[in-house]
Amino acid sequence: MKKLIDYTKILRSKNAGPLFITFDLIFNSKEDMEYVEKRLKKSDISKAYDIGEEKIEIISYGVVNSIKITFPRKNISGSLADNDIYGCQQHMPLANIEI
Fold this sequence. Notes:
By secondary structure, this protein is of the alpha+beta class. The protein is 22% helix and 28% strand.
């Protein structure tokens, strides 16, 4: 079984304001995007990030072969408990999900 990162051209994380983190999954082809879209489950993301499924949003942008995933940050960006102020180092648990 392949990992999510094996299907993407770009897989990155970043802040969506101080309260949310967002992930951009950009694919080489429509076929790869559709394949992942059918198999990627909120339950997998929930387990990887220890967050409730109801807090996860998955939005597909077929016109540009991409998927955006957004959910609340555990710690507000810039707070004393925050370990990644820009949110750019949060993508690996997602990248390693088996598809």
